[in-house]
Amino acid sequence: MPFAELDENSLRGMTMQSFAGSALFDRTFDEGMSLVEEAARYLDGRGKEEARDLPRKAAMLYAGESLRVTTRLMQAASWLLVQRAVHEGDMPAEDAADQRYRLGSKEICFGSRAEEAENLPKALQDLLARSESLYRRIARLEEVLTSPGEAAGVRTQFERLEQAFGQ
Predict the structure, then answer these.
(1) Domain boundaries in the chain?
(2) Cα separations (Å) of 110 from 136, 147, 158?
(3) How many CB atoms lie within 10 A of CB 41?
(4) pTM
(5) What distance in Å separates the CA atoms of residue 75 and residue 109, rounded to the nearest whole number?
(6) How far is CA 6 from CA 11, 25, 69, 78, 141, in A?
(7) Is the domain covering 11-140 a CATH 3.40.30.10 domain?
(8) Residue pLDDT, tens place only, 87-140
């Protein structure tokens, strides 16, 4: 089920570590890594050829927008890899919560697409749309999973379990 269809409440109380063990994480991770590979193949291959055939102004726009795709995907991949490292026990959750491991470059990644973007190759336009969708979903996941109420909610759940099982 895509994140857009998820009820935010189903994520509340979930820790980053438990989220990284979920089917939603697996799907998001697979999508993100596949998109990174697809973008790299395109930008290093057919994209270079298509960019050579563009008028000068469109070629400059192509360069800027391809950097935006790359930035979005590298930020998304980095975030996903950190979450996987926490889940696999290779990194403490406290370290992963540090600001340096948070999703970055938001001013670039959320920036609006240029009006002339419709003059770009269709494959790049597709990568722009899909990378933006992925980045926005991950930003929303990070926001929900690291909200101030998260720690209190998790603590309350553990307290209830301890009371129920007498520990």
Answers:
(1) 11-140
(2) 8, 20, 37
(3) 11
(4) 0.80
(5) 9
(6) 8, 13, 25, 23, 11
(7) no
(8) 899 998 888 888 999 999 999 999 887 778 888 999 999 999 999 999 999 999
